[in-house]
Amino acid sequence: MLTRGKILEKTAYRSANPAIAPAVMDHSTHVGVYVPQATGICGVAMAGTTIRSRSNHMPTFTQTAATTSQAMLFTRVYAHVPSTVHSLVALLLSVYHPHTFRVLTAEYPRVRLPSIGTELRRQGYRTAFFNASDNRFQREDVFLTGRLDQLEDYRTFRCAGQVFRASDRLWQYLDGAPDACAVKPIVEWAGHGSAPFFGVFWTGQTHFPYVVTGNATAFGVRDPSLNRYLNALRETDRAIGDLLATLERRGVLDSTLVVVVGDHGEAFGQHGHYVHGVDLYEEEVHVPLMLINRRLFHGETDSTLGGMIDVAPTILDLLGATPPAPWQGRSLFDSLRTGRVYLFTSRSKVLFGYLEGNRKFVYDAGSNAAELYDLGKDPAESSNVIGASPGMAQLGRERLATWVQFQRRFLSDVLVPDAR
Description:
By secondary structure, this protein is of the alpha/beta class. The chain has 2 domains: 30-338, Alkaline Phosphatase, subunit A (3-Layer(aba) Sandwich), CATH 3.40.720; 345-412, Arylsulfatase, C-terminal domain, CATH 3.30.1120. Helices cover 26% and strands 20% of the residues. The chain has 11 helices and 16 strands. The strands form 4 sheets. Strands 6-5-7-3-8-11-4-12 form an 8-stranded mixed sheet. Strands 13-14-15-16 form a 4-stranded antiparallel sheet, with helices on one face.
């Protein structure tokens, strides 16, 4: 059982790879996970550099960044698939998404795997999911039912006249509300009852087409889509900042572990593509992860390599709980980490990849082409060095084939076809 009000003491490095774990802290029972959509490290860094160099405005993600002195920032965390729904699965279930064109939430919403919501519910937590968009997209509502106690989306937020419309006949359930509309219902829910809470807030404005509700600022960029994205990112940042400020005014911020993690990145032409889901380049898969609590963290930065499947185990580790056996992720403070993160996408090309150390290997199953990048020397992935690494193409394909086969066997026992 979790001991309410107690986060177990951690000590220094438990291996050469994991992060330095935080010192002991009392009375940190609540957990809030905030997921800004389409917010990758590359996009935020690019935005910050552009703003600082070309205008007098402050960098976009200022309110969240203001907490860095009370946070631990992980600089090498990845979305395994550059897609919101796939990251939802990885975040809640701590497993890699199936290698398929189909989406698990739509085809197998009743997959037989424990979620962080069900694990914390067993420990007496209240759980909820707040989505500034529509929970019906890709049947997320069916997938979430039973895994979290309370499900809310823009349709239940009290923001009359502020709904934005993005759905069409081909793509349904893309409408939403400004991210700020979620603050009040989240705070009201968090303040109801004496049991500790676990809440997830998934934002929506920073997803294409990048919704801006106020007066737009000219950030000095040539691409109007990027400028709109930066304005949407600023509004999302304000919503998260307002939420944290409200929790502090109510006296619960110090007893809350706050997790901020992007669900995937966003491309703005760096490799000839836009939006996300097309490639496995850094701008689409490299995401920020911040753990915020002024009693636990004091501005640490760590380069431990991790992925979305590691977030839930990291939360349970900080709460002193053991993750369930089926989970594939490991705490970022765990000495048994493999030091390898796998990637996949199938939206336009079928790409498999993995990161290990500073190397990223990507294999195109359609063209049988391989790419290799040294991110330490070439973070922009401008030079494919596979030709200078004899044998790496074969080794990389074999490693990825082993991963695919393992996943197929693992998932065959837990995927439950859904009769709609």
